[in-house]
Amino acid sequence: MNPAANTLLPWILIALGLINVVLSFLVPDRKKSLIALGLGIFVVVVGFLQLGSESIQRYRWNQRMRQIQSERQTDLDSLRQHLKDKSAVPPATTPPPAQKK
Fold first, then answer.
1. Sequence ranges of the domains in the chain
2. Is the whole model's pTM more than 0.85, yes or no?
């Protein structure tokens, strides 16, 4: 699934479950009405579980990205320091090669 569908799936489930709960009261047969109500509540609960799971996964992903960024920033800072130290040391001068006549 694409990211937009992953983000909207729990909200769609919750909405469908709520519609099912509301429509379950329109069913005249008591037994069928309770079955529809139970299924509607089940779909709403599944939607909330999916929403919570997705939020936790997104939080962990963001934490991992921050950790990787800080590690790379540390690596970049050490590389900059290394290049700065290397450029601070004057290069050894070598005599120019002798020209042949």
1. 9-84
2. no
